[in-house]
């Protein structure tokens, strides 16, 4: 949340002082859902990353059939360059495939070029461009 807000504070909500506890609360409401999974990467007993994925229903608004969706993937600095993000994403993709999803969709901030390179390397392709106009 902080990174996205740093990229574009007008587009992404301000994290505030309790962003971590707020997002922890939000994820805790999601993990009990049947169509959601949160996978955590552990390095020597310390969580160094996670991926939050789920099944999204058909959306006429987004012109998209039912699909798997990776909502969030985060890897702490000490876990980077070790294949953690790749393993997390592939685990989520396998979980979504096992539930019959025909494709996986994700989004990334325009400025997050390292994530875009990773996603491209893992077989994702660009399909939409979000544009924002402030009022």
Protein traits:
about 140 residues; alpha+beta; Aminopeptidase; about 25% strand; globular
Brief overview, please?
With 135 residues, this protein is of the alpha+beta class. 31% of the residues lie in helices and 23% in strands.
CATH class of the domain at 35-121: Alpha Beta
Strand line-up across the major sheet: 1-2-3-4
Which strand-content bin applies to the residues?
A: 15-25%
User: Rg to the nearest angstrom?
Assistant: 15 Å
* Shape category: globular
Structural class call reads alpha+beta
Mean pLDDT: 93
Largest sheet: 4 strands, mixed
Please trace the helix and strand order, writing H or E for each element. HHEEEHEH
Query: How far apart are the first and last residues' alpha carbons, in Å?
Result: 22 Å
CATH architecture of the domain at 35-121: 3-Layer(aba) Sandwich
**CATH fold title of the domain at 35-121:** Aminopeptidase
Discrete helix count: 4
What share of residues is helical?
25-40%
Low-pLDDT runs: none
Task: Write up what this structure looks like.
By secondary structure, this protein is α+β, with helices and mostly antiparallel strands. Helices cover 31% and strands 23% of the residues. The protein has 4 helices and 4 strands. α3 links the parallel β3 (67-75) and β4 (104-106). The chain has helices spanning 2-7, 19-30, 84-98, 113-121, and strands at 36-43, 46-56, 67-75, 104-106. The mean pLDDT is 93. It has a 4-stranded mixed β-sheet, covered by helices on one side. It has a domain at 35-121: Aminopeptidase (3-Layer(aba) Sandwich), CATH 3.40.630.30. 16% of the residues are buried.
